[in-house]
Amino acid sequence: MSYQVTFLPQGKQVECSAHESLLEASLRCGINTAYSCANGSCGDCKARLLMGSTQAIQHTDFRFKESEKNQDWFLLCSYAPTSDCTIEIQETNSAETIPQQEIQLKFSKLKIVENRIAILTARAPRSKTLRFLAGQFVDLFFEDFDAIRVPVASCPCNGMIIEFHLDVLSKHPAVTALISSIVSGQSIKLRGPFGAYHINENPERDLLFIAVDNGFAPIRSMLEHVLALELPHKIQLIWIASENYPHYYDNICRSWADAFDQLSYQALYTQAVDDLQKSCKQLFKQALVDFAATDIYLAATADNINCIQAALSYKNIQAGQVLITQVSE
Ligand code: FES
């Protein structure tokens, strides 16, 4: 049995089953809900039931004050709906309010694509999932090697199954060791998250995401979050791959474009690695985008960011219109 749940103040509506926690339902519809433990002990997911009814689906240790109980406060992580509901929740849309976390992940899958990208999937314990905002980074510690700082390449709506994209040609010893020797169930320590949150959740313009090479990883996280928000705006994704760099998630991008009417996708190649700016200027002429009418989310290495910005400067872009996420080589 499923019920219609309305989350205030955004007014977002989502179907939630009688077995799914209201925390999971809120994250699934793209709300950056405040929470920590997800097991009923910290109280960070406190919310107020304004209409409807709920029931506990797990034991809770957190104790509310009498006054809070009287005002129908409850824990989103530990309750599911038993009727249509309206719930007032606490959101955190700023990176500063996300606590630093240390989590022992368990390695679950590594897939090498076109001998260039290793797609690593790891699992956080159910009682300690990763809370982060789309486009943020974490440090991964493998065995005794120095940390690898990587963008999270999956949606913040699922802090338990987490994906990272590693470059097979990386010179970082930890990346090389991890790709060559990690075994099923092995631990990887995660610390984080780090980095800013750029998404404007109430945009006035359409949204354009530009990923260059491995900049696709944070863009994927941001794009999945934005799709969950169900904004009425047009969303465009341009993925520029330089020579020898594959569009390693091309199929997924195409399936998103098929599944979401408002999303379009262009995979572009540039050969001129020594003159990316000139090449991008040419590429942007081919791109079917009114650049001036979009919020632009760009993720690339430092050198490529400069090139893309220079190429965009011919497109009547206003200051502050390009929001940048810098990734490492
Ligand atoms: S997230 Fe800790 S009590 Fe719900």
Compile the SSE list and pairings.
Blueprint: E1 2-8, E2 12-17, H1 22-28, E3 46-51, E4 54-56, H2 66-70, E5 73-75, E6 79-81, E7 85-88, E8 101-113, E9 117-123, E10 137-141, E11 148-151, E12 161-167, H3 173-181, E13 187-194, E14 206-212, H4 216-229, E15 235-242, H5 250-259, E16 263-270, H6 276-286, E17 294-300, H7 302-312, E18 322-326
Parallel strand pairs: 1-7, 14-15, 14-17, 15-16, 17-18
Antiparallel strand pairs: 1-2, 3-5, 3-7, 4-6, 8-9, 8-13, 9-12, 10-11, 10-13
The structure holds FE2/S2 (inorganic) cluster.
Quick summary of this structure?
Strands 11-10-13-8-9-12 form a six-stranded antiparallel sheet, covered by helices on one side. Strands 2-1-7-3-5 form a five-stranded mixed sheet. A five-stranded parallel sheet has the order 16-15-14-17-18, sandwiched between helices. The protein is α/β, with parallel strands linked by helices and 329 residues long.
Description of the molecule:
This protein has seven helices and 18 strands. The protein is an alpha/beta fold and 329 residues long. The protein has three domains: 90 residues, Roll (Ubiquitin-like (UB roll)), CATH 3.10.20.30; 99 residues, Elongation Factor Tu (Ef-tu), domain 3 (Beta Barrel); 121 residues, Nucleotide-binding domain of ferredoxin-NADP reductase (FNR) module (Rossmann fold, 3-Layer(aba) Sandwich), CATH 3.40.50.80. The strands form four sheets. It has a six-stranded antiparallel beta sheet with strand order 11-10-13-8-9-12, with helices on one face. It has a five-stranded mixed beta sheet with strand order 2-1-7-3-5. Helix 6 crosses helix 7. It starts with a strand and ends with a strand. The protein binds FE2/S2 (inorganic) cluster (FES). FE2/S2 (inorganic) cluster (FES) binds next to loops. FE2/S2 (inorganic) cluster binds next to loops.
